[in-house]
Amino acid sequence: MEGRWNARADRARRPPDSDRVQNPLNRDIGPLNFLTLNAHQQALSLCNSSLRFPCYDLIHIEPLRPCPALRRWGSSLTMQFALPPRRSPHTLPGPHSSRLPLYRRKQLKTIGLFAFAILSLLYLLSHIYSSSSISIVAPAGTASVVIVTLLDRQSFSETYINKIITNREDYAKRHGYTNFFASVSDYEGAIGDAPRSWALVPAVRHAMATHPHSAYFFHLSPHALIMNPTKSLKSHLLDWNRLESLMLKDTPIVPPDSIIKTFTHLKENDVDLITTQDNEDVSPSSFILKNGEFARFFLDLWFDPLYRSYNFVKAEIHGLDHIMQWHPTVLARTALVPQRILNAYSKDSSGASPDGSYKDGDFVIRFPGCDDGKSRDCDEMDPYYTLWSKKAKGA
């Protein structure tokens, strides 16, 4: 039947392979006439010149089934410039495909910076709120405590100085401590025109440099005697439980009504400086300083030329009052203890706190102002020295 398509005859009429055109997907599309081929090439050229990506994803040349009416192979040229179907395996390249990775990179960068900021903050807080003291590995035979005594050989008699040295050496020998006796004249160049009492600060710093492995430095005024030689600093004050029970919290720094008070949350393991106060000021005549970074910072701050050149009425005492009130970094490391623990005043001395006068059995007695040359003399220490000698021999 002529109306029916004869496949065998059609195949015989097909042109050779050299005349056939392959589409970009290597699919046989049959013969194309020149008009169709030219249109296809023009479309490809236009597409490639106007877009940034190849056009074979947009232009599909699909073979048609043989047309029975024409009895020959045909082809159709389909141009699709719309977006592909949702489930198409060919995803359009362009900004959308790289937007998600870029967003993720920004997100990861933000998370990384945030994590770094948190770790840095934790690191800083750990150094601020942990003890600033250096963990010191002391060589064998190193004394844990150094007793620092500043002597003014121009003002004190040799008899007086010998009594002070004997008192300190006896106590140090009993408990395995060591003494550091300094002379005011050694620091005249450092203190300059400031009052000579400022020499106690470089004297303590000198002791720290001489004994770098000792844990504590106990500064004691040359106008003071250790009256109870059986008490070690460890049992008397440095034991953590003992110190915790003695710390004065929420107490005015400068009596009686300073608005700046000691911290209520201060713990014994945060303490690097232990001192007392009398009825008027913080008293640096007797204090214990823990070796470490804070100790050096504190002494450098206290000895700053600004404080030494300022005309404080009580020189280094008022300088310390100022530091305690306006430098919370120092106050956060300082423990105030009752006056009689480290700095009991003799009955002839004025300015003691309500419970700051010496009583039998107290650790230290001090004679402030005995060298002012007016109505008192430091020989008032002699009866107490005799009493101490008897205790030392009987202990």
Briefly characterize the structure:
The protein has 395 residues and is of the alpha/beta class. The chain is built from 14 helices and 11 strands. The strands form 3 sheets. Strands 4-3-5-8-7-9 form a 6-stranded mixed β-sheet, with helices on both faces. The protein has a 3-stranded mixed β-sheet with strand order 6-11-10.
What does this structure look like?
This protein is an alpha/beta fold. The chain has helices at 7-13, 34-50, 95-129, 158-175, 188-191, 200-210, 233-238, 240-246, 293-302, 305-309, 316-326, 328-331, 339-342, 382-394, and strands at residues 59-63, 75-79, 145-151, 178-183, 216-220, 224-226, 273-277, 282-290, 334-336, 344-345, 364-366. Helices cover 38% and strands 13% of the residues. It has a 6-stranded mixed β-sheet with strand order 4-3-5-8-7-9, sandwiched between helices. A 3-stranded mixed β-sheet has the order 6-11-10. Strands 1-2 form a two-stranded antiparallel sheet. The protein contains 14 helices and 11 strands. The chain is elongated, with a radius of gyration of 46 Å. Strand 3, helix 4 (158-175) and strand 4 (178-183) form a beta-alpha-beta unit. The termini are far apart. It folds into 2 domains: 7-79, no CATH class; 149-394, Spore Coat Polysaccharide Biosynthesis Protein SpsA, Chain A. The chain crosses the membrane at residues 108-126. Keywords: Glycosyltransferase, Membrane, Transferase, Transmembrane, Transmembrane helix. It holds the Pfam family Glyco_transf_34. GO terms for molecular function: alpha-1,6-mannosyltransferase activity.
